[in-house]
Design brief:
alpha/beta, disordered C terminus, 492 residues, 2 domains, 45% helix
């Protein structure tokens, strides 16, 4: 998949980037990190870090951080089951897609919020598979209708089965990681082929401020050992788990994700690790988490510059909203952060499709609308192409004063590729709009989602491989397949 180059928007100067880098290195050395996992403490100690095994405080010398940055790949390729969906993460090349993990969904028939299920996951994966604006499928929900110990298996399996785009997801257990890698390798044709063309990637987290907790750190090390592409994002919230300034939150987030990069490289040198951020701010009136605030866009754009400084690909966060419905608030909040972060050249912008209500709720119609928002952002990245043909000097001369360009061959040649044509926005006259039902954007998007789910079929997994996987993991047999509902949400 051809990403477009961002990087035109630069909230930080070169000198400011160096200042942030310097402060981050000093903080990683003093006060250092609180590391709860004993094995990780030992890994750091063997590499030359200062480790107090009694308190769990680990001090990372600058040289250790620099060494890890030198061994981490600058280019990470995240593959789809179809090559056309491959993502090449490097420099300022930008892609946007879904994120995770919502606990609720707006039912596409009733509009009421309810708990998420495996069937929702199946349908959202098929919807994302069909929408051109969504470049990857980061698993966007937690299915409440499966046992928690099976969550990793179900989340990745039903995603892979219903889209041929790259699948990324958070993970919950070492056993789950190993099971997912086992069936992903079966789909790919073997472990080596999976490493050559990773159709999955995984996310662990660093806790703010400056904590590597036991569970996530154990998961980070397991993914790194397996050689699967890994993201280790930090999520400081300015004013609570981060400083009350944007610059301070950028420093903290930068230091924290660097600690994950270091540990991944110490566990398995050359691990394809992606610099990550989910940093935002609190609501200064209530103290609660925010996801639709413009400051989130600024922070993530600044951190995109930091990743570019380190020559690492970045997993950034944008395109969210704190609105409860797909309404005007959702539209302007999503576009604000998505456009800033894309123009900054962040590589893998997640959470940009479907999310509402502080990342707790997802909606089918919102995913459709967000696909259009993403396509508009990508058109902005494309910019204004200037060459002798597009300058149209001779065309203007031919048409002359008082003429008309509509029927000129030059206009016909460029009209489809020069202009973005929306599929949700209504640009017709009021009379036509009223005649066809006077529906708002959410209603039009809901109808498009229904149509896609009724008609679209993703690339199937070869039957023999699917059968082998289901025999190995029989718990995957007992879920109703996507497509088993009619358009009213009733069982067929």
């Amino acid at each position: 998949m051809r990403g477009l180059e961002g990087g035109a928007y630069k909230p930080l100067t070169s000198e400011e980037i160096k200042q942030i880098h310097g402060v981050s290195l000093r903080l990683l050395e003093d006060p250092g990190l609180k590391v709860y996992n004993r094995e990780a403490q030992e890994v750091f100690a063997r590499a030359g870090a200062g480790v107090d095994f009694h308190t769990g405080i680990v001090s990372l010398p600058p040289g250790l951080v620099e060494d890890a940055l030198n061994t981490a790949p600058s280019r990470v390729v995240l593959c789809g089951r179809e090559e056309k969906n491959d993502l090449i993460l490097e420099n300022c090349r930008t892609y946007m897609g879904t994120g995770g993990t919502a606990l609720y969904i707006l039912d596409r028939e009733t509009g009421k919020r309810r708990r998420t299920t495996v069937r929702d996951l199946q349908e959202l994966a098929r919807l994302a598979d069909a929408l051109d604006g969504i470049h990857f499928f980061m698993i966007p929900l937690y299915p409440h209708d499966v046992p928690s110990e099976q969550a990793d298996l179900h989340r990745f399996w039903w995603s892979l089965k219903n889209t041929s785009k790259h699948v990324m997801g958070g993970v919950y257990s070492v056993k789950g990681i190993r099971g997912v890698i086992e069936f992903a390798a079966e789909i790919s044709g073997g472990r080596e082929k999976l490493k050559e063309r990773p159709i999955i990637s995984m996310v662990t987290c660093v806790m703010s401020p400056l904590v590597l907790d036991d569970t996530y750190t154990r998961l980070l090390m397991e993914v790194a050992r397996q050689g699967i592409p890994l993201v280790c994002p930090a999520e400081p919230m300015a004013g609570t788990t981060g400083p009350g300034t944007l610059a301070g939150t950028v420093v903290l987030s930068n230091a924290e994700t660097l600690s994950g990069v270091v540990l991944a490289q110490l566990v398995n040198k050359g691990t394809p690790v992606i610099y990550g951020t989910v940093a935002t701010t609190m609501d200064m009136r209530t103290g609660s988490y925010l996801s639709g605030n413009i400051e989130m866009g600024l922070i993530n754009a600044a951190l995109a510059q930091m990743a570019q400084f380190y020559e690492l690909p970045i997993y950034a966060t944008a395109g969210l909203s704190d609105a409860k419905l797909p309404d005007a608030q959702a539209g302007y909040e999503k576009m604000g952060t998505a456009l800033l972060t894309a123009l900054a050249g962040a590589n893998f912008i997640h959470d940009a499709a479907g999310f509402l209500e502080f990342c707790t709720t997802i909606a089918f119609e919102q995913m459709v609308i967000d696909s259009e928002i993403i396509e508009m952002c990508m058109r902005a990245l494309k910019g204004v192409e200037v060459n002798p043909d597009t300058l149209a000097e001779e065309v203007i001369r031919e048409v002359g004063p008082g003429g008309n360009f509509l029927a000129h061959p030059h206009t016909l040649r460029h009209c489809r590729r020069e202009f973005f044509i929306p599929f949700v926005a209504d640009r017709r006259t009021r009379q036509v709009w009223e005649k066809e039902g006077a529906r708002d954007a959410a209603a039009r998007a809901r109808e498009k989602a229904r149509k896609i789910l009724a008609e679209h079929q993703p690339l199937p997994i070869p039957q023999a491989r699917e059968q082998k996987i289901v025999e190995r993991f029989p718990e995957l047999k007992h879920i109703a397949p996507a497509g088993s509902l009619n358009l009213r949400g009733e069982a067929r």
